[in-house]
Write a structure and sequence with these properties.
The chain has 396 residues and is α/β, with parallel strands linked by helices. 36% of the residues lie in helices and 18% in strands. The strands form two sheets. The chain has an eight-stranded mixed beta sheet with strand order 3-4-2-1-5-6-7-8, with helices on both faces.
Length: 396
């Protein structure tokens, strides 16, 4: 089976979990015997006048093109565009005809059986229109709410969560449904994500729930003296919607525990300056990330937005950490019996949960192996097999 994975960003240019899932999928499908190509974006200056360029990542061919717009999405954080520029960018991204020619040139060469699209920011729905001429099936993965909400988060400007689609989002969602006929199937990493899109009118294509698979090295748990304080891990983007403000409110009231904070974003400096019972780790990856998780007791997933299936939470589960998470999006589906659920943006409820966990630290530490075992051996390869099954059923 020849598969083309389309992702607006792809390593080494990656920002969030969607790119990591696309990369894991590409690697695992290749290991299963599929012929995999990736189409992603790059800065226009790097093309030197060409329609596209070809890179290689871990032996996989990556075709990079540069849709014409005001800026490259990967450089958005560096450029810090204002509200007007962002609005114009999104306006162009509703339908960007500049992607047609390079996409057709690439797809004509590759001749895929399946085009698996992930985040299509920058490409616009034009990517589906171009792909339908060259692929027998198009399958789109719902990593966020991009198809139903301009912000892709279902959050209002004041930071509160939308319980349903507002008028603007309804119009926006209707626009994307105009292209639904190009997509034969949708994949959602959580049932919550699937349900939102069903309610938003995506009723033609089959929606398959396929969990995100992560690959975790063998756990290396050190013996911990019962007298040592509980170690809490908060590893996230340092933004308000991830619960940063709520956590900052609670930390001074928990002197008897250790907080280990990792990530990057607008709240990073505030956490870095805390000191005391707070250890700042910055942005962690690779072995540093596994070392941090291996030495923790409790993982905090404090999102105040509709999460889909956060990779950090899944990684923490597979490392056996106890999870304290908010009751939003797909988080309750993931936590199950491996932790506790609390309402979002309620410091008092978070404080109660932390104090309770501190009182139960001996039990929490003793249950680590069982929690890790209960998550099973579901990894990128298992996820790729499920994707293969969806591709085959879609191809008929």
């Amino acid at each position: 089976m020849r598969v083309v994975i389309v992702s607006s960003l792809f390593p080494p240019f990656a920002i969030g979990g969607a790119e990591q899932v696309a990369a894991n999928l590409a690697r695992a499908l290749t290991a299963l015997g599929c012929e995999v190509d990736v189409i992603s974006t790059c800065a226009r200056r790097s093309l030197e006048g060409a329609q596209f360029r070809v890179d290689h990542w871990q032996g996989i061919r990556v075709w990079r093109l540069a849709p014409r717009n005001l800026y490259w999405r990967y450089e958005k954080e560096q450029r810090q565009p204002g509200g007007l520029l962002r609005a114009i960018w999104h306006g162009i991204d509703l339908w960007n005809p500049s992607v047609f020619r390079p996409l057709e040139m690439i797809l004509r060469q590759v001749q895929p059986d399946v085009v698996s699209t992930h985040n299509i920011d920058g490409f616009s729905p034009a990517v589906w229109q171009a792909a339908r001429k060259y692929a027998s099936a198009i399958v789109h993965t719902l990593h966020d709410y991009h198809l139903v909400c301009p912000r892709a988060t279902m959050r209002r400007r004041d930071g509160t969560m939308c319980q349903h689609l507002c008028h603007t989002c309804g119009v926006y969602a209707h626009y994307h449904r105009l292209f639904a006929g190009n997509v034969q199937a949708l994949i959602a990493p959580s049932q919550a994500m699937a349900d939102v899109h069903r309610l938003a009118g995506w009723n033609g294509a089959a929606i398959h729930v396929v969990r995100n698979g992560v690959d975790v090295p063998a756990a290396r748990w050190a013996d911990v003296d019962d007298a040592e304080p509980l170690k809490l891990i908060f590893m996230s983007r340092m933004e308000r919607e991830k619960g940063c403000e709520t956590l900052l409110t609670v930390i001074p009231r928990c002197p008897g525990v250790e907080f280990h904070i990792a990530g990057d974003g607008t709240y990073a400096e505030r956490f870095r300056q805390l000191g005391g019972n707070v250890t700042w780790h910055g942005l962690v990856s690779g072995q540093s990330k596994w070392d941090l998780l291996s030495n923790g007791d409790v993982f905090l997933q404090l999102s105040e937005c509709r999460e889909n299936a956060p990779l950090g939470l899944i990684e923490a589960q597979k490392c056996g950490l106890y999870i304290i998470g908010t009751e939003v999006g797909g988080i309750p589906e993931l936590i199950g019996k491996t932790g506790a659920l609390i309402p979002p943006a309620q410091p008092e409820r978070l404080l109660d949960a932390l104090l309770t966990a501190s009182d139960r630290k001996k039990t929490i530490r003793a249950g680590r192996f069982e929690r890790a075992r209960s998550t099973g051996d579901y990894d990128s390869r298992a996820m790729a097999r499920e994707y293969q099954n969806v591709f085959r059923s879609t191809l008929g």
